Amino acid sequence: MASPQKEEGFTRIANELLDAIIRYPFPASGTQISLVMFIIRKTYGWHKKEDAISLSQICEGIRIAKRTAIYALQELEAQKILFIKRSSKNGVKLPNTI
User: Fold this and answer.
1) What is the DSSP letter of 63?
2) Measured distance CA(61)–CA(97) in Å, rounded
3) Which is it for the CA torsion 57, 62, 65, 68, positive or negative?
């Protein structure tokens, strides 16, 4: 990332949402804020309001352990920062839509 430029891609985010993220008292560990930013990149970055994002994508994307990702997702969902739709088809669990 020698010289990041908008011409090489960018993510549009509403100022109101960005302001709320800036003001929110996320824990000092940084995992939750990284997870929120990752999800914004995977959704708004691709002009989507939601996306099916697998746990493995999250773990690889922000370089955290599976258990850490699960705890962070649960906490963000409990705080109503993220909304997660869980689904399965023919008994097979599908990626969560976040």
Assistant:
1) T
2) 16
3) negative
Which phi and psi (to 5°) does residue 30 adopt? Answer: 90, -10
Strand intervals (E) in 1-98 = 52-53, 88-89, 92-93, 96-97
Task: Give the C-alpha separation, 63 to 31, whole Å.
Answer: 10
Q: Residue 33 is which amino acid? A: I
What is the per-residue pLDDT for 9? 83
Grouping H, G, I as helix, E, B as strand and the rest as coil, residue 52 is strand
Beta pairing, strands 52-53 & 88-89:
unpaired
User: Residues 16-44: what's their mean pLDDT?
Assistant: 94
* Backbone torsion region of residue 10, taken as left when φ is above 0, otherwise alpha when ψ lies between -120 and 50, otherwise beta: beta
